[in-house]
Amino acid sequence: MASFQLTTLSQSSLQDYVDCARRFQLRYLERLSYPAVEAEPALENEKHQQEGEYFHRLVQQYLIGIPNEQVSKLANTPNLQRWWENFQPFSQTNLTGLTSQLPEATLSAPLGNYRLLAKYDLIAISDGKATIYDWKTYRKRPRNEWLSARMQTRVYRALLVNAGAHLNNGQPFEPEQIEMIYWFADFPNEPARFAYTSAQYKRDWDLLTKLADEIDSASSYPLTDDRQKCAYCPYRSYCERGVRAGDVDQAEAETEAEELFDVNFEQIGEIAF
Ligand code: SF4
């Protein structure tokens, strides 16, 4: 099996690595396409995922200045209409009068022998404070504890400290100036907010560096012991852990499945710098 030389790491690849080293190997080193659908029913999930991506595009268009009337015409399915209607009041309350807003900003920094890369839905800067927004179209609202431990929450805040000086007049942001907010399109009044501290930043960057070193020197990629991770894993037929998607009825297991499905080739592929 061909193995690719990986030069970038992202929150998705790191999350895969901590969830299951085997999945990391199959997805990022072997670059295998999905042999099994993520969850049943497959078509419905695929449609939901496409609508989620489309919603991100609508928000981006709106944030770069395309008038609401024009963008709202593109919200042409029941899900998109509902999400877009939910987004309006949130946007009016939170995203007006900012010093600057950077939709779809990409930041990167060296991490061990790799580059750590993150694409943000929005970085909003106002009153010396940087707020990271991430739009989620999850069907269920995950617990804050689960979100707090996700690699995305750690990577996005840490990378903004490490690589965001150009957004702050050449001065790195202090962790205390940074907050990350997940906004849920189906739970518009229940955003999850994560402030940041210097101690958390140190903890996160140490962890990220340790993971990068581990990945760099790894010679084997064991299957996870947590078989629950396999329930929705697209690679389970490679691991003889079932060919049919599980029906674990847990918000976080399902949400993890949505995240798995959400990894796109931009995140997997090499990005030239
Ligand atoms: S099926 Fe399980 S062991 Fe295999 S890659 Fe997926 S999570 Fe890992």
3D architecture notes:
This protein is 44% helix and 18% strand. By secondary structure, the protein is α/β, with parallel strands linked by helices. The chain has a domain at 40-225: Lambda Exonuclease, Chain A (Alpha-Beta Complex). A five-stranded mixed sheet has the order 2-5-6-7-8. A three-stranded mixed sheet has the order 1-4-3. A hairpin with a 2-residue loop joins β3 and β4 (114-119). α3 (42-63) runs parallel beside α5. The protein is globular. Bound molecules: iron/sulfur cluster. Iron/sulfur cluster is lined by residues 20, 22-23, 26, 223-224, 229-230, 233, 235-236, 239, 241.
Provide a compact summary of the structure.
The protein is an alpha/beta fold. It is built from ten helices and eight strands.
Question: Keywords, please?
Answer:
single chain; 273 residues; alpha/beta; Lambda Exonuclease, Chain A; five-stranded mixed beta sheet; three-stranded mixed beta sheet; 44% helix; 18% strand; globular; binds iron/sulfur cluster
CATH first level of the domain at 40-225: which class? Answer: Alpha Beta
| C-alpha Rg (nearest Å) | 19 Å
Q: Detail the poorly predicted runs.
A: 264-273
Distance between the termini: 27 Å
Number of strands: 8
Pattern of helices and strands: EHHHHHEEEEEHHEEHHH
In CATH, the architecture of the domain at 40-225 is Alpha-Beta Complex
Q: How does the overall form come out from the CA principal axes? A: globular
β-strand amount: 15-25%
